[in-house]
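Folds abound. A case:
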Amino acid sequence: MTRKKRRLVLITSALAVLGVAAGLVLYALNDTIVFFRSPSEIAAEGTAPGSRLRLGGLVKEGSVVKQDNAHVRFVVTDGGADMAVAYAGLLPDLFREGQGIIAEGVLEPDGSFRADSVLAKHDENYMPKEVADALKKQGVWQEGSATR
């Protein structure tokens, strides 16, 4: 084998190993990817129950119901659709009605959402880009206005 052929075989082998490694990494990450959705997108797309996702929007006024110590139910809205959320745990200090939030969890077969974590904005000017875009699309949130 000439030097040129050996170099070509070595480079081809290295690229093949790198391709297999990248494929295995992407396959492993497939289960941990969590997509962001607004209530309107979930309703329109018919997301399958059991899907893990992030739900974002505003906590609907008058919808927060605190049950026993750490269980709470509330409704997240984007102006176009509403989604009931059940959460067991401590809510962030800034959580309140009219507040922009992101809840991560699982879509239940009955159409409600069971959250494992709830994130609230940290000041009156912060709104996650995906939530702001979804609310702007619905005409609920305008740039420069404080959403509470």
